[in-house]
Write a structure and sequence with these properties.
Blueprint: E1 6-8, E2 11-16, H1 22-25, H2 30-37, H3 43-65, H4 68-77, H5 79-91, H6 100-118, E3 129-135, E4 141-157, H7 159-169, H8 173-176, E5 182-183, E6 188-190, E7 193-195, E8 201-203, H9 206-214, H10 221-230, H11 239-251, E9 255-256, H12 267-276, H13 282-304, H14 308-326, E10 344-357, H15 358-398, E11 406-407, H16 408-419, H17 422-440, E12 448-451, H18 453-463, E13 476-484, H19 488-492, E14 497-504, H20 513-516, H21 522-530, E15 539-542, E16 565-568, E17 583-585, E18 590-594, E19 597-601, E20 607-609, H22 610-614, H23 619-622, E21 634-635, E22 637-640, E23 643-646, E24 649-653, H24 665-679, E25 684-689, E26 696-699, H25 703-716, E27 721-726, E28 736-737, E29 743-744, E30 746-749, E31 752-754
Helix pairs in contact: 2-3, 2-24, 3-6, 3-24, 4-5, 4-14, 5-6, 6-25, 9-11, 10-11, 12-13, 13-14, 15-16, 15-17, 15-18, 17-18, 24-25
Length: 757
């Protein structure tokens, strides 16, 4: 397939770390590492050198952590660590005894250090992003840093925090009865029975069943009363009858009855509109004042920026007001969701002007297009497999439901449960990996595999022939690409290579709030997203509130368009507002068999192909399936032209890694350093163990990072597997500068649109 088959979006995001990479190198102990590799070194000499090294590197780690920016980052993420980790290490700095507490706290701090200095993120000042584009006026690249790390910052409420305030305010009966109740997401009404989301039934009195059936997330008790009386239902004669039924339904956990706070970046705006719509009363005034108090506390956090003293004071005020006004915890626990533990979050735009040149683009597109051709094939196979599953489910339920067709909601619930099991998509990924292995055909033990795109064009086209995308979202894929160069000057001189991080399948990751908020012209991004397959309608799921979805990490797209349709699940449960007349309520859609295909019939009688309607619901499962090499004990670095499409990787049983017992740290360090050298591992790697989803930085020359790694290896012993991937670019091959000349890790996030249709 020619490069013309893939059209890059004009805009590219630059994701980066918020702290310079060189600081991590100061946590290394090259002297002890060299002794460990010297067969003439005695255990005593290694022991003495290791203790000197751990004392020095631990002191430097503490010095890093006590810096203003590091302290501010901890206040955002884990304020407990400021006092109980950094503070503890400072109080015990004079006592160098290697106690269990010291090792644990060093490991905790080490983990934060690697995240802030070595991980490309899009969160706060410790993961600022910026925008760039490809320019014909630039040959390779330009990067001009401003005087500061951050050029602009915004502090937003987490939607759960404003929802908690709305819930507390709705405890006032005078406020609550003016609000529209909604069925809890997943609740189904079948005559006198209500089915909970888990399918368990609840038999209701006739009045309660009638009220629950009429609840739609838009009708207040007064409107519900009028609706039921208009229907001729005799069990309701006045509004108080409906209110009493709603109270019973609320107690049963079948409805929510509070302000409808959307899962978006400005939840306080929706709450204010709903409060202002209430009749004037003391309760209304008190509710608006409560919201204003939280907004004042948020403003204090924004004003403090990254100054730890002011930030700590501002967070104390915010936490106090959250507890006082919501009667709920001010900070969520880990169990309540990975994202958004604090009541507010910050997004920052990096203070640097980057321009990508035509030379970069022309060298990147040929090899990247081959990878995208295979991504098209994998997405097609996924969609084809899904369509078969939907057909099986339709046939299973067709004889069990009255009328023509099957309610689409039944099929959606079933297939989402099935495809969430990795075993469902495993055969597709294995087929994908076998094709790439056959094409690349490397020898066992080979560490560097180099191919050229021209030579691979024919076998890739043969192995990955695929029809045009099966749904709108399947036409866009989002690669993360790094550039390895020993500084900006080397990069500009053409001495570099690209490194492919991930390809996020069937997703335009740039159409996400974390990026759009920093873009100078979001409408330009919207227009790029709208330029998808002309023969495919786009149906965007509108997700209700859940522990997995927040206003910040809301699935793409963030920029809604009146050209799209919107699949709605649970009105009144935090769903975002959509353009008027473009909603497709799931409970009004019916699946029907048309020949060998399944189509979806809307309430108006229109028909759509089933994958057009449900394709984007698979985003969470499909997005990370692009893994071209199989999970062997060792796979090589694979380079096509100037693009490293796979970094060298090892997958090893944890019990084969010399981890020791943890009591003799110098001996364990030396054993691991020798093992890494013998195994052929580079000095810098990223590792995962015991189910970790995020890779962790490891410098085999650093006692601190080795200790952290070995602790996890010991936990993974048994049948655990440890995955190690070469760090490429490594700390000596990053190029993004700041005003002081320090360099930062970064990656380019692109979106490429499939033009094959």
């Amino acid at each position: 397939m020619s490069n013309d088959a893939w059209r890059p979006w004009a805009d590219v995001a630059v994701r980066s770390a918020g702290f310079p990479i060189h600081e991590l190198l100061r946590l290394a102990d090259p002297e002890t590492a060299a002794l460990a590799l010297d067969p003439e070194s005695s255990a005593e000499r290694i022991h003495e050198s290791w203790h000197r090294g751990i004392h020095r590197t631990s002191a430097h780690l503490l010095s890093m952590a006590e810096g203003d920016s590091f302290q501010a980052a901890l206040l955002w993420q884990n304020p407990h660590a400021v006092e109980h980790v950094t503070g503890w290490l400072r109080r015990h700095a004079a006592d160098t005894t290697r106690t269990r507490d010291r090792r644990r706290k060093e490991a905790k701090l080490t983990r934060y250090a690697q995240r802030y200095h070595a991980r490309n993120e899009t969160i706060g000042f410790f993961g600022p992003c910026t925008w760039t584009d490809f320019s014909d006026d630039v040959e390779v690249i330009t990067a001009q840093p401003g005087p500061n790390l951050v050029a602009a910052r915004e502090v937003h409420f987490e939607d759960w925090a404003i929802d908690a305030l709305g819930t507390a305010l709705a405890k006032d009966p005078a406020i609550r009865r003016r609000l529209a109740p909604a069925r809890l997401a997943g609740v189904v009404v079948q005559g006198p029975l209500a089915l909970y989301p888990d399918g368990s039934p609840c038999r209701l009195p006739s009045v309660d069943a009638a009220v629950l059936a009429a609840v739609d997330g838009t009708r207040t008790p007064r409107s519900l009363t009028a609706e039921l009386r208009w229907q001729g239902f005799t069990g309701v004669t006045r509004e108080d009858d409906v209110v009493a039924a709603l109270e019973r339904l609320l107690a049963r956990g079948l409805i929510v009855w509070r302000p409808d706070v959307p899962v978006d970046p400005w939840p306080e705006r929706a709450l204010r509109r709903q409060l202002q719509a209430l009749p004037e009363s003391d309760g209304r005034a008190a509710a608006l004042d409560a919201l204003a108090q939280l907004e004042d506390a948020r403003a204090a956090v924004a004003d403090a920026a990254d100054q730890p003293a002011g930030l700590a004071k501002a967070f104390t005020l915010l936490d106090q007001r959250m507890k006082q006004l919501t009667e709920a915890p001010a900070v969520r626990t880990k169990d309540q969701g990975h994202y958004g533990r604090r009541a507010v979050y910050e997004d920052c735009r990096r203070d640097v002007d980057v321009r990508l040149g035509a030379g970069l683009r022309s060298s990147l597109l040929p090899p990247l297009s081959l990878m995208l051709d295979s991504a098209r094939w994998l997405t097609w196979r996924f969609g084809d497999h899904l369509e078969s599953l939907i057909g099986e489910l339709y046939d299973q339920f067709a004889g069990m439901t009255p009328g023509n067709g099957v309610p689409l909601g039944i099929i959606v619930n079933q297939f989402l449960d099935r495809i969430s099991d990795p075993a469902w998509s495993a055969p597709l990924v294995e087929e994908f990996q076998k094709s790439w292995s056959d094409i690349l055909s490397w020898r066992a033990g080979e560490r560097r595999v180099r191919r050229d795109s021209a030579g691979l064009a024919v076998p890739v086209a043969a192995a990955f022939a695929a029809p045009p995308p099966l749904w709108y979202g399947a036409a866009q894929h989002s690669p993360d690409v790094m550039i390895a160069a020993a500084g900006l000057g080397e990069l500009q001189a053409g001495r570099y290579e690209f490194v492919l991080g991930e390809i996020h399948l069937a997703m335009a990751t740039l159409d996400n709030y974390a990026f759009t908020t920093a873009h100078p012209d979001p409408d330009r991004l919207r227009h790029a997203a709208e330029a998808g397959p002309a023969d495919r309608p786009r149906v965007v799921p509108i997700y209700p509130r859940s522990p997995k979805v927040t206003g910040r990490n809301y699935p793409t797209p963030d920029l809604f368009s009146d050209r799209y349709w919107y699949l709605s699940f649970a009105p009144g449960n935090g769903a975002r507002a959509v353009p008027r007349g473009r909603s497709l309520p799931l409970d009004e859609l019916v699946a029907e068999r048309t020949g060998t295909s399944i189509t979806v019939r809307t309430r108006s009688g229109a028909r759509m192909r089933v994958l057009d309607v449900v394709g984007e619901l698979t985003q969470e499962v499909l997005v990370n399936l692009f893994q071209p090499l199989p999970p062997l004990p060792h796979t090589p670095r694979v380079t096509i032209d100037d693009l490293v499409v796979a970094r060298e990787k090892w997958r090893l049983p944890a019990h084969t890694i010399p981890a020791g017992s943890g009591r003799d740290e110098p001996a364990a360090f030396a054993a691991l350093r020798r093992w890494a050298e013998t195994t052929g591992l580079p000095r810098f790697v990223f590792w995962r163990a015991a189910g970790r989803t995020k890779p962790v930085y490891l410098d085999f020359d650093s006692p601190l990072f080795v200790n952290d790694f070995l602790a996890s290896v010991r936990q993974a012993r048994g049948d655990g597997v440890v995955e190690l991937t070469e760090m490429h670019p490594d700390p000596h091959h990053v190029w993004l500068p700041d005003a002081d000349g320090h360099r930062y890790t970064c990656e380019l996030r692109l979106v490429l649109a499939d033009q094959s249709g």
